[in-house]
């Protein structure tokens, strides 16, 4: 039964409050593209991606037009490329990255994720080779995204990988110094990385996934904020949580519908809906603004972690009811450069790196799209990665680090990435050195809650 | 197949005539019309049947949207599923 008010509400959420499906991501397994001859492997990779994803863009555009639902990004995630390098003889990983980039351009997607390695317990063949190639792979390609999983609740944290990743993040920024250090913005270091994440830069197609699958990531901070602005006056915190839940339900329903339609249109199984509040730099489409609407003067002040915990939980509760399968990162994202309210709060000095770290203990991802001074040492970046990974490991949740050392810049300067990646001020970072700790290497043992079996 | 046409914008003469005229041209049968004017803002919702219309719905949506741009209104033609699924379990 169609109700006039429901129709008008949906249209208002889409046209005035930036509600959209943030991404439809096709996951493609490349396990059958492994070949001892790297050239042949790259040919197989290109062929498989361009065949499988041939109709991805037209199908998404057709559904978007027929149902009136904006679908902002169309993307691809693939099997971690380190797994393919393992069986190749003397491969050049950068050539694999260029192949992914060409395939992405050929089918018309705007990012392809999976230049990745899973090293939470140790390195296997291909892993170190891929990791050392990340800076050049990201500098020489446009659309390729990279991620490395360095820890998990079950296996602890691989501190050798943490040490390497501190250096690699710096090198990725240095290799793209002339392009706003963009390389580091396309590189995520994970703990407990999900295998079905549709969001970039951390998307990859895990080995437990089917051959080809469609995942959907929803958005909607603007819609949640507008609902609070309209109806939250005088409500207690329970009432606010309920209102967020109801709005999250509506937002997620849209994602579920798009996933079902894409799956039918492409004859590919529907994987998961990622129940995320993904902000954009557009005015009002901001997670920070939601927290401020809940009652904080500025995001980053005392009370921020509690308000975010409530928001994150309510989003999940509303979203779970609205969808069949939930996965990916699912929760509120707090990427500083991609969120207008976070940018303002960081520029005022109200939102600090330490507060962001606390926030990551209760929300979806981690220290995300944070610009740090260009002279930050690799050991400090490794220390930050280890801290975040420890939060993820102990709390059995995904955490990640995507920081961009602004080479040649310092606090007071800015990096401007453009588009959905936005811009951000350089934020100060504690300069006490963790060098000796990081140099120990080895592995942080898994925490006791892993022993549940 | 059912679709929803929504028309939102500043009230003026001839909106209904223009939109229903476009429906007739495309062999779209109008099943229901509700309209409201609140503080000068006109909103109209039409439930229509497009099963006899030869044009694909995505092209039809573009046609109605460009007609909206022409007369300074927000006009959308979409399938009904979004509105049904977003608000009901």
Q: Can you characterise this structure?
A:
The complex is a heterodimer of chains A (453) and B (89). Chain A is an alpha/beta fold. Chain A is 44% helix and 17% strand. In chain A, the strands form 2 sheets. In chain A, strands 1, 2, 3, 4, 5, 6, 7, 8, 9, 10 and 13 form an 11-stranded mixed sheet that branches. Chain A has a two-stranded antiparallel sheet with strand order 11-12. The longest helix of chain A is centred in the middle third of the chain and has 30 residues, at 237-266. The model of chain A has no long low-confidence stretch (mean pLDDT 95). By secondary structure, chain B is an alpha+beta fold. Chain B has a single domain, classed as ACT domain (Alpha-Beta Plaits, 2-Layer Sandwich). Chain B has helices at residues 15-25, 57-71, 81-87, and strands at 2-10, 29-38, 41-49, 74-79. The longest helix of chain B is centred in the last third of the chain and has 15 residues, at 57-71. Chain A binds chain B through residues 2-4, 6-11, 15, 61-62, 65-69, 250, 253-254, 256-257, 321, and chain B through 4, 6, 8, 34, 36, 43, 45, 47, 57-58, 61-62, 74, 76, 78-87, 89.
Short description:
Chain A has 453 residues and is an alpha/beta fold. In chain A, 44% of the residues lie in helices and 17% in strands. Chain A has 16 helices and 13 strands.
Topology diagram in text:
The complex is a heterodimer of chains A (453) and B (89).
Chain A: H1 4-15, E1 21-28, H2 38-52, H3 56-67, E2 71-78, H4 81-85, H5 93-107, E3 111-118, H6 127-139, E4 144-152, E5 156-158, H7 159-175, H8 182-185, E6 187-191, E7 212-218, H9 221-231, H10 237-266, E8 270-274, H11 287-294, H12 304-322, H13 340-348, H14 353-360, E9 367-373, H15 378-394, E10 399-406, E11 414-416, E12 423-425, H16 435-439, E13 443-444
Parallel strand pairs in A: 1-2, 2-3, 3-4, 4-6, 7-8, 9-10
Antiparallel strand pairs in A: 1-7, 4-5, 5-13, 6-10, 11-12
Helix pairs in contact in A: 2-5, 3-10, 5-6, 6-7, 7-15, 9-10, 9-11, 10-12
Chain B: E1 2-10, H1 15-25, E2 29-38, E3 41-49, H2 57-71, E4 74-79, H3 81-87
Antiparallel strand pairs in B: 1-3, 1-4, 2-3
